[in-house]
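Q: Given only this backbone (247 positions), what sequence would you predict?
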């Protein structure tokens, strides 16, 4: 199935709108951020795409990175929430790797030749523990050049809505010398800028700013369009972010 035919099929299966980052335009892949999925969405529906498979890790708010190889990618039992980790990459084609979020930061990664695809789930723990930095260093360690790497940072809770406590600030200060650069102090409250924190990690890996696309949507502010843990509390679903090579 071509990209032109696959996108409408995906939107129908997911029953929601898909956002396609322009940084991936004209590449032989599909990378997308969804808006709200239906509440209690049945992920097994995604197996109806006969030519493609989906893989979602069991997210732990960790810094564990999964390299997805062919022996795992086509085992249907392992496709959904079985293998623990918060970042995934693969060079396999015809498999979409993804993460679920409801305020956390989803990041999609590839390079200008679409040699690999990657996805990162950046909650506050992953973000302050440098998950994106560690992920990019691992990718660069395989020989991919930083100047060729392309990154899309999807919708997430923005600094306007993300008040944090001392537990978060303590870890941030431990891992970043200039932690205050990622904090806003307002009305005796402290807010964490997850966008700036993850963008900074990409720059520290020498990714050119022009290679990074960032969604301006705040999942908490735009809670009619996105699920937000901060806004909807426990009565919420997810949106997903996924990326896969077509050839």
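A: Predicted residues:
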């Amino acid at each position: 199935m071509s990209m032109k035919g696959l996108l409408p099929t995906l939107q129908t299966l997911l029953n929601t709108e898909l956002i396609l980052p322009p940084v991936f335009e004209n590449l032989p892949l599909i990378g997308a951020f969804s808006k709200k999925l239906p509440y209690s969405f049945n992920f097994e529906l995604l197996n109806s795409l006969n030519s493609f498979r989906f893989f979602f890790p069991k997210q732990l708010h960790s810094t564990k990175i999964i390299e997805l190889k062919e022996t795992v990618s086509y085992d249907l039992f392992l496709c959904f929430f079985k293998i623990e980790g918060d970042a995934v990459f693969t060079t396999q084609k015809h498999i979409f790797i993804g993460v679920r979020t409801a305020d956390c930061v989803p990041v999609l990664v590839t390079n200008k030749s679409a040699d690999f695809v990657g996805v990162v789930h950046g909650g506050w723990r992953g973000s302050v523990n440098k998950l994106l930095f560690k992920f990019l260093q691992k990718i660069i360690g395989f020989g991919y050049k930083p100047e060729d790497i392309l990154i899309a940072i999807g919708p997430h809770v923005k600094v306007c809505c993300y008040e944090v406590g001392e537990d978060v600030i303590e870890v941030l200060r431990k891992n970043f010398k200039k932690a205050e650069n990622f904090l806003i102090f307002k009305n005796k409250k402290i807010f964490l800028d997850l966008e700036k924190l993850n963008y900074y990690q990409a720059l520290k890996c020498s990714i050119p700013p022009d290679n990074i696309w960032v969604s301006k949507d705040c999942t908490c502010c735009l809670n009619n369009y996105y699920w937000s843990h901060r806004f909807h509390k426990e009565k919420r679903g997810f949106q997903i972010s996924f990326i896969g090579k077509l050839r």
